[in-house]
Amino acid sequence: MVHITDSVTRRRSPFARSGFSLTELLIALVMASILATMAGSPLARARNAFAVRAVRQTITAVLDAARAGAVQRGRTGRFVVRGNAVLAYVDTVAIAGGSVVGTYTVMAPEDFLTAYGAKLSLASPGDTLVAYDGRGFANPRLGRIARVIITKGTAKDSVCITNLGQVMPRGCSL
């Protein structure tokens, strides 16, 4: 006698399972965490390098804004480093005695520690201020290269300003 059964009438065995065991889930979790740990370190380094690059570009933009503001208004423009922030402003009215009555902020201060988690340091204490005259030259000339060093984690870069007040594109040693 031949038995013909179809899939509708066939019943499951009571021992058949439809999910994963706890051991299988734990093994998959351990493997996923190992892969995430291996990928996390290069990602953190890349994130730090991008943050340092963004800070460098922002500092360069603030230096350019200080110089452009000085040329545009024909007055002294200043680039100032205050802790982990930089700003640019231009004198508006100067009195014959050399004192300044007002300033015009070209670029407001931005705290890089808060924004990017990056820290600024100076190669020399005199690097906190770069002043530009109305022609766009550093006044007085710096006489040396001013250097602002940017660090985040293991990533490190610097912005170097020549004695005429120009930003060096690359090649400034840390």
Characterise the protein shown here.
The protein is of the alpha+beta class and 174 residues long. It has a single domain (24-168), classed as minor pseudopilin epsh fold (3-Layer(bab) Sandwich), CATH 3.55.40. It is 32% helix and 29% strand. It contains two helices and seven strands; from the N terminus they run αβββαββββ. The protein has helices at residues 22-73, 112-115; strands at residues 77-82, 85-94, 100-111, 119-122, 129-132, 146-152, 155-161. The strands form two sheets. It has a four-stranded antiparallel beta sheet with strand order 3-2-1-5.
CATH topology category name: minor pseudopilin epsh fold
Measured by DSSP, the beta-strand proportion falls in 25-35%
How would you sum up the major sheet? Answer: 4 strands, antiparallel
What coarse outline follows from CA principal-axis ratios?
elongated
> Which CATH-level-2 architecture?
3-Layer(bab) Sandwich
Poorly predicted spans: none
Mean of all residue-level pLDDT scores: 82
Kindly state the percentage of residues in helix: 25-40%
Count of DSSP E strands? Answer: 7
Work out the radius of gyration. Answer: 30 Å
Summed up, the domain count is 1
Show the helix and strand layout:
Blueprint: H1 22-73, E1 77-82, E2 85-94, E3 100-111, H2 112-115, E4 119-122, E5 129-132, E6 146-152, E7 155-161
Protein name: General secretion pathway GspH domain-containing protein
Pfam families: N_methyl
Keywords: Plasmid
